[in-house]
Automatic annotation (TrEMBL):
Pfam families, per the entry: Isochorismatase
Name of the protein in question: Isochorismatase-like domain-containing protein
Signal peptide residue numbers: none
Residue ranges occupied by any Isochorismatase-like domain in the UniProt entry: 10-69
Domain of life: Bacteria
Length: 119
């Protein structure tokens, strides 16, 4: 199986990989991305496989080739960088409302702490 060169010519050098089978879909795409010189993040909690041993073996194999093992929350936080820029609040709201609803409690906490206390 040869992955197609999606994204070639876009000027982007990062790849975020997730899939149904960690040991097949994710591992093959991630390691192919590394071989092509990309920085690759494998989102392990957004992927699965038949058993824990296969998942662990795939993670070790990917990590040995230079793939960054990551979680959906960590990747989302890295994509957002800084919530203080104009328009970022809307992006965070959309992300936490649809994709990561449990992350919304952190956003609410940070927003409350940033507000003046009325003193």
């Amino acid at each position: 199986m040869r992955p197609r060169r999606r994204g070639a010519g876009t000027g982007r050098d990062q790849l975020i990989a997730a899939g149904i089978l960690t040991d097949v879909c994710v591992a093959l795409v991630a390691m192919s991305g590394i071989a092509r010189g990309n920085q690759v993040h494998a989102v392990l909690d957004a992927s699965g496989t038949w058993n824990d041993l296969a998942s662990q073996a795939a993670a070790l194999r990917m990590q040995a080739t230079g793939v960054t093992l990551n979680s959906s929350v960590a990747v989302s936080a890295e994509l957002l960088h800084d919530w203080r820029e104009q328009g970022d609040a809307e992006t965070v709201g959309t992300l936490t409302g649809h994709a990561l609803p449990f992350y919304g409690s952190l956003v609410s906490f940070v927003a409350c702490r940033a507000q003046p206390t009325g003193v």
